[in-house]
């Protein structure tokens, strides 16, 4: 069963990342039946807070395929994807994501993102990071400008 092979590979990547000083997260991205990206959490070596394994796998896959859309792809992740990674999956057309360890298993080790999911489930005005509209007076036409530029 290839699914099990993909997940075992994601877990092996996660374990290797521990040895490399990183967090216990690995991901394998499968597109049209082929592994197109293998990635690990690289926050420890990039200082990039968005360098989660799933994000890195999406970046690698898009670069390797030369396209920003990954419609129909599947991701095998060692841990439950965080809201950022899940949103990225939605934005590029990932069809399904699998994870081995859930947030409850990660909680005792500070590896759960359940609190972020809980925040994002609240109305924007009630989140601890308020999202508020703010457009300076006189500002207009940004999207129309883009539409005109992209149709020329
Ligand atoms: Zn993530």
List keywords for this structure.
152 residues; alpha+beta; four-stranded mixed beta sheet; 7 helices; 4 strands; binds zinc ion; APOBEC/CMP_deaminase_Zn-bd; CMP_dCMP_dom
Topology summary:
Layout: H1 2-19, E1 26-31, E2 34-40, H2 43-46, H3 53-65, E3 74-79, H4 83-92, E4 96-101, H5 103-106, H6 114-121, H7 142-150
Parallel strand pairs: 3-4
Antiparallel strand pairs: 1-2, 1-3
The site of zinc ion has 6 residues, from helix 4.
Write up this protein.
With 152 residues, the chain is an alpha+beta fold. Helix content is 43%, strand content 16%. It starts with a helix and ends with a helix. The structure holds zinc ion (ZN). The site of zinc ion has 6 residues, from helix 4. Keywords: Metal-binding, Zinc.
Helix and strand content put the structural class at alpha+beta
Q: What sequence of helices (H) and strands (E) makes up the elements? A: HEEHHEHEHHH
Mean pLDDT: 97
| Structural shape | globular
Give the C-alpha Rg: 18 Å
Secondary structure: helix percent? 40-55%
In DSSP terms (H or I, runs of 4 or more residues), the helix count works out at: 7
Pfam family, one: dCMP_cyt_deam_1
Keywords: Metal-binding, Zinc
Protein name: Nucleoside deaminase
